[in-house]
Structures are given as C-alpha cells and as structure tokens.
Amino acid sequence: MIKRIGLVGLVFLFALASTYAQTTRYFVYVTNSVSNNISAYTMNPGTGKLSAVSGSPFPAGATPSGGIAADPKGKILYVVNEAGKNVSAYMINSSTGALSSIAGSPFPVGSKPLGIAVAPSGKFLYVANDGSANMSAFTIDPGTGALSAMSGSPIAVGKFGSYPAGVKADPSGKFLYLTDWTNHIFAYQIKATTGAPALVSGSPFATGAGPWGIEVAPTGKFLYVTNSDAATISAYTLKPGTGALSAVNGSPFTTGKSPYGLAMDAAAKFLFVANNGNATISAYSINATSGALSAVGGSPFAAGQGPQDLAVDPTGKFLYVANHAGNNVSAYAINPSTGALSGVGGSPFAAGTNPSGVAIVGVSGP
Q1: What domains does the chain contain, in order, with CATH numbers?
Q2: Res 139: pLDDT
Q3: How far apart are CA 98 and CA 96, in angstroms?
C-alpha cells in the first residue's frame, strides 16, 4: 500500500513538474527611434494587457528605427540602429523579459540599416542596408547569440537594387526575400550550411511603388509586400522548389494611406497592415487556396497616431501596433472567426519617443 501511494505520488509530481516546465511567457518589445531605447512589456495571455518589464526601457544604439527580431527559441533579441550603423544584441531573461547586452554588441553593418531577419534555423541573420545598397549577412553563435560576418558580406543587392528596406526568410529557411525602393523584391536561395544567399532565377520581381514591409505566410505558400507610395499590397505565390514569385490573381490589393508594417497570425487566416498616413489598421482574410485578400468586416480599424509596425502574438489572439507619432502601443483582440479587431482594456500603452518597430517573443521556462 505504501509503495502504491508512493508511485501515484511520483506520477502526480512528474505531471505537475512537466506542466510547470512548459509555462510560456510572452514579452512585447518596441524600438523607440528618438529616445534610443527599447520598451519591454509582459503580455497577459488572457487579456492581452501589457505591463512594463522591470528596468524598461532598455538602452539601444543610435536611432533604433524599426528593425527588430528574435531568434526562434526566444533567447536573443536583435535591434537595428539606423544612425549607429549597427545591430544591438540582447539576452532575454526567460523569467522577467529583461534585456542584457551580449558580449561584442553592437555589431557593425552598412549605412542606414532598416530591415532585419533571423533564419528559422536560428543560425543566420540578415540586415537590409538602405544607405549602402547592400545586405549584411551573419552567422549566429548558438551559445551566445554573437554575430560573425559571413564570407563576402556585405552582399551587393543585384540588378536595379539601390534602396533595400525589408527582409524576411520563408518558414523553411530555404529562401530569403528583400524589398527595394526601386519597386522590386529580390529573392535568394539560402545555402543550408553557410547561410550564403544566391539570387533566384527571374529575380528581382516587380512590386508596386515604394515597397516596404514584407511577410511570408507560415504555410510558406504566399508572400505579401506593402507598397507605401501606391497604398496597396502586392501578393505572390512562392514556387516550392525555386522560391520564385508569381502574382496572386487580383493583386495588388488596396490599403489605407502609406502602408508600412504588416503582420499575420500563425494560422495564416488574417493579414493586418499599419496605414501610417491615415492612422488605421487594414485587416484582411486570406484565401488559403489562392492567397487572395478580402477585407474583414469593419476594416479599416482606428489606430493611434502614425502606426508604423505591428505584430500578432504567437497564440493569434492579440495584435500590437507601434504608433510612431503617438508614442504608444495600441493593443487589439482578434476575433478568431472574422479577424475583426477590438481594443484591449488599458490600450494604448505608453512607449518611448517615436516607437517604430515591435516584436513579440514567447519564452518557455519554469
């Protein structure tokens, strides 16, 4: 009898410990381009409400103007500093969300860096350098998160390329996409062993005027680009073997004025766009077969002043928007059936001066 009770107790404790170990905390990070720091928040997974992390805001380099990304494990955060011509790297405290600079940070890149992307493998990092018409490419130290320039980096952007802005890897990690202000998007194949990018046949592909933000569907089937001067979104299908792009039927799709950032839920059901010019968020349903976009009922939704970037949390329940001119972050609950947005209690939440980029990190731990 004693042995039986002991066994049951052990099973219970093991289950309890497993549940405890799998707890996931969600942190929201916002780059403030004029106050040169990063606002950090803990996200309430039930309500979406944000609470400032102790020690926030954390110092960044000169003009962290939007480029922000985390490694896939949620351990390291990378921030592009436009005026500093470098990338700051931080260790994320899995319990508190606090940031601490890693050894060697910041790491130099080209002139006027804007976009940043971490490969899904967590091995490579890429930065679009708008001012020097090239792309910086790095390998990531798996233990420390430190960056080492790849051989041949920085990489000149190919034919027509002169003002690269946004950069994003596809979910497979085989392809990399780079928007350029010459109204093109460049597609690259990523070498699995070295991370070196090579232009895809047919690249670059035409976009609308002023391509800026870029998003690849988690399914790997579709890619979307905001055209800030044309007030549209270009939509493409990705050819599985080559990464080449072809326009979705009906593309480009209409947005609000000066669309910048865009974000998608993990199920690839909805797409959201920050319309900087008229302080709104456009919301779309994504056709799972064709990739075509249809406006969600009630869209566009009101945002703060100058919405510039936005992100959907990993659970797909909440959307967060960095309002550049409002110095705050708007938070919305996403209707899981329709994609419609409703304000989270307490929103907007105070940020630093001229928030420009936003990233959400899910961290598992005790």
Answers
A1: 25-364 (2.130.10.10)
A2: 98
A3: 5
